[in-house]
Amino acid sequence: MEFDLSKKYCFYFNEISKIPRGSRNEKAVSDYVVSFAKEHGLRYIQDDTCNVIVDMPASPGYENSETVLLQAHMDIVCEKNKDVEHDFEKDPLDLYVEDGWLYARGTTLGADDGMGVAYMLAILDDPSLKHPPLQCVFTTMEEIGLLGALNLKREYFHGTRYINLDEGGEDNTCTTSSGGARTVMSKKLSYLPNEAKTYRLEIRGLKGGHSAGRIHMELGNAILLGARVLEKLCQKYPDIRIADYNGGLKFNAIPRESDIVFTSDTDLDLLNQEAQGCFTEIAAELQYSDPGFNGKIVPVETVDQALSAKETLQILQFLNVIPNGLLHHSMAIEGLSTASLNAGVIHIDDGVLYLDDLIRSAAKSHGDMIIHQLEILSPLFGFDFELSDRYLGWDFEKDSEMREILRGVLKDKGIEMKEVAIHGGLECGVFKGLIPELDIITYGPISENAHTPDERLDLASFDRAYENLLAVLERCI
Ligand SMILES: [Zn+2]
User: How many angstroms does the Cα of residue 56 sit away from the middle of ligand 1?
Assistant: First the structure.
């Protein structure tokens, strides 16, 4: 299997791979799509967040058919192996083929979602295809919270059928996705001088992972476990004062590690004795779900300031009472999480402590309830509460004409279509919020290891899924 550039979708995949396009750096690829539209005489809109919508008229015989929206995001996750020299701001991806899979040397491939972008450009570039009027939507900043899609306006669109090209697998389609909201709870801190000994409480060894796919797995949250242990220590040694608190890397990942720097006149041995009891209890709780958990307290250089003992306790108590993890799961669709939240990142910046949390909920009411709980709790512990980037979920709908069309196309190939329900947020939810009558499917080829340097695209599947997609469009008469 070759990467055959005479196939238009391979050609365009290769072209966009030359353009650096990490999230928030989509201007160049967005302009590339705009010049493509101009060259092909197609109408387009480019908005102020670099989203592009390209209109393609119906092919003969489809003039009266309902418009179909096709959609993919242009940005990619920029991950590379440590030993690889690659500047994601400047360098093209270095594509290569091995055993029928397409890779980028040492970096993410950007098949998520270059595959969808390439499909749309190939379709727009092929006047021989049969299809209804199309609106191809190229979005930005999907990977950092669907921010491009959230900037879209209802009036850009005139279709009620929609194919999201961001979910692969070739034989399946999504039927529901979760809504989401980011919350930042922050607390202005006052520091006092310190002369006591200084220690660091370290939580390590947890699995972590994506807060949509793994929230139901009873994994430890390093930020909250740190708070749990230190609050227990405070009960015995009330002179404990926090100097610094760090944990987690991304709001949508379950934090694997945390560090709390604190001061106390208590000896290390005594602190360790008390902490060891907590570590043992937690390790027992996590023995089947997150067995790598470990914690320790180490002495560090004395810091010259720390919070008051009262403020310390407020922070720790807050972290011990806020809801976290899986809150609800579906009794209709097996294994589907329907409401959760993830305390993803904690850090102190310029005298303010920030806790970044991501709420996910399929039903709006669950999201409302969780937000309300955090709104009630925050001021009780002296925290400010701020909500941003909220988007609604895409709820399962029993009847979907688009799903039946896809099912029929796959059936003709001898494939039984699988329906997938996910707890993650998809741009589908944002579009559903914008156009409530939208009939949605997701479709794409087989790819693996998204968001890692091992990301790869199955080239034979890239061919087949394109054919299937064209067959779906042909049946949208
Ligand atoms: Zn994606």
Answer: 24
